[in-house]
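lol forgot to send this yesterday, sorry. struct tokens for the thing we talked abt
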């Protein structure tokens, strides 16, 4: 049976949908015309189509991983002004963004005052992990505890815990902002114990280790929790004034300078 051009135009879109090749479907006709006009061999034309399909699937997978991570907002390392935090080990942060610690099931702990950029850099590293093909999930500490408590009440805690264990990196932000109930503290301790040497955690906290009993209530559980969390862990201290405050101050100074320049121009134009 001779295959006609009309038959190809009718059948190819159907077959490509069935094979789930949307990028090939979107580009095969244009690339076929270009191949015909340039005398491109059939195998090169096919290779170009499949490379485009593969490339687009990689883009789509990265987008899905970022969506699944549920970051509250997106931050990149390029957006962080390390000059505002001169004591922060920039080389160490850049090393963590390469995600080798995830391959080794190691933890990261960011410790420092409120406003020093811990969440920004935690999200940046999480975003880099998504782009490197890792499964990432972001929680605030209170959000994670509430999710575990709710799952327990609905008799689905085991399923939620299994799902969380499939994540390559779990970010727990703002440990220390909200005290936990004893049940919530126990839930978090159990979760950290399950992750121990099985998967990476990135935790941000404004508390010194000696003060963790303030939010966990039972001082007896704090020692074992910190023992598991800090073993095979990269600890980064954020020392200095509030990063957000200094950024805000710089913006205000810039706006004031713009205002002064505008006023100077308006006065100079007065006859």
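and heres what i got for the seq, position by position
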């Amino acid at each position: 049976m001779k295959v006609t051009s009309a038959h190809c135009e009718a059948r190819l879109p159907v077959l490509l949908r069935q094979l789930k090749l949307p990028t090939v479907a979107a580009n095969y006709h244009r690339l076929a015309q270009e191949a015909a006009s340039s005398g491109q061999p059939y195998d090169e034309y096919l290779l170009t189509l499949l490379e485009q399909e593969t490339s687009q699937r990689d883009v789509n997978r990265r987008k899905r991983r970022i969506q699944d991570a549920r970051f509250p907002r997106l931050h990149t390392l390029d957006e962080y002004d390390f000059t505002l935090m001169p004591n922060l080990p920039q080389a160490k942060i850049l090393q963590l963004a390469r995600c080798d610690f995830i391959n080794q099931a190691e933890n990261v702990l960011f410790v420092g005052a409120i406003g020093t950029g811990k969440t920004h850099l935690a999200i940046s590293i999480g975003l880099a992990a998504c782009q490197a093909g890792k499964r990432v999930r972001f929680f605030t500490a209170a959000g994670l505890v509430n999710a575990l408590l709710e799952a327990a009440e609905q008799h689905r805690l085991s399923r939620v815990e299994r799902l969380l264990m499939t994540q390559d990196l779990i970010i727990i932000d703002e440990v220390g902002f909200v005290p936990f109930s004893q049940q919530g503290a126990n839930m978090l301790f159990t979760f950290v114990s399950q992750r121990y040497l099985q998967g990476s955690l990135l935790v941000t906290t404004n508390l010194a280790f000696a003060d963790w009993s303030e939010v966990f209530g039972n001082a007896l559980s704090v020692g074992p929790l910190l023992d598991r969390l800090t073993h095979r862990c990269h600890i980064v201290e954020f020392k200095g004034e509030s990063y957000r405050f200094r950024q805000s101050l710089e913006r205000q100074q810039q706006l004031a300078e713009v205002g002064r320049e505008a006023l100077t121009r308006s006065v100079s134009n007065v006859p």
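The radius of gyration is 26 Å. anyway ping me if u want another try
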